[in-house]
Amino acid sequence: MAMDIALLRTFLAVSDTGSFVAASARLFVTQSAVSLRVQRLEDQLGQVLFTRSKAGVALTPAGRAFERYAISLVKLWEEARQQVAVPEGFHQSLTIGAQYSLWPRLGFRWMDALQQARPDLALRAELGMPDRLTRFLIEGVIQVALTYLPQARPGLTVVPVMEDELILASSFPSDDMAAVRDAYVFMDWGPEFTQAHATDLPDLPIAGVTLSLGALGIDYIVNRRAAAYLPARAAKPLLDAGRLHLVPGAPVFPYPVWSVFRDDLPDDLATTARQTLAEVAQRAEDAQEEVMDELERLTGHAVETLGED
User: Fold this and answer.
1) In 3D, which of 145, 147, 105, 101 has the Cα closest to residue 256?
2) DSSP-assigned letter for residue 47
3) Which residue among 49, 120, 122, 211 is least crowded, i.e. fewest CB within 10 A of its CB?
């Protein structure tokens, strides 16, 4: 059964990416292993599932017909695996996925709130980028996700959570943005941030170091003479401790956070999950507001928004 699930996951990875090479990278196996698994599945079904060309692969009519069954089978397997794995003394389980930047002071605190509200609920955490989280949601590996880039799919509901405020912070005190120019590290928060940054901050160029690490980049910044755009929510403890410092006059960048729920999550569990997440998000926003108030005080006027006309 385990091997059959591996074949199904491989089929879905190829279908999703349109490439044996991309599927092998996603699954952390060789391209030849992907080809062999697809061939085995085609042999078992007695149907060709993909057409191959120099441009990539595409589903055949049989492949399109099989895809919905493959998704259902993987989902059913995940549900059974999770239900069987519920530890003794617990009645339900919930698996939460999130991007790395959304675990500190949000995802972990959500887990705390869920444990307090539902002591009989077993929790599991997963990490991933938006594409991986969406695939996990579709396959039933996770039941809810926190992400900056939600992807709408049938059977999934996207709900706004809060807006992260990305603030410019440095590991040393400064009077303005000019003072951190030579220590600036570009944190890649996606195409919208990059475009707004290029338009509004021409005097703060993308220099020699770029990090695509999200909130993990805080560890890099705080341990070096460096400055970068970081989530106020995650940076606040270090700001309070004097290990990070706000840069007066620097604009902020609002970055919406979303939750994505599977529609088949039991109603009682979905209600508890939504309520506890809203409470945790409100506390995160309150803490973030303290950072914004302090930035406004240091700046001496209302803080501008990066990318706002």
Assistant:
1) 147
2) S
3) 120
Instruction: Give the CATH number for residue 301.
Output: 3.40.190.290
Q: Which distant-in-sequence residues (6+ apart) come within 8 Å of 305 by Cβ? A: 251, 252, 253, 254
Position 1 scores a pLDDT of 42
* CA–CA distance, 272 with 269 (Å, rounded to integer): 5
41 and 148 co-located in one domain = no
- Domains identified in the chain, total number: 2
- Residue where a domain terminates, one of 56, 83, 110: 83
Please indicate, yes or no, whether residues 112 and 208 belong to a single structural domain of this protein: yes
Q: Could you count the other beta carbons within 10 Å of the beta carbon of residue 102?
A: 27
Q: Mean pLDDT, to the nearest integer, of 26-46?
A: 88
CATH code for the domain in which residue 13 is found? 1.10.10.10
Q: Tell me the pLDDT tens digit for each residue of 204-239.
A: 877 688 998 888 899 999 999 999 999 999 999 999
Which pLDDT band, with edges at 50, 70 and 90, does 2 fall under? very low
Amino acid at 124: R
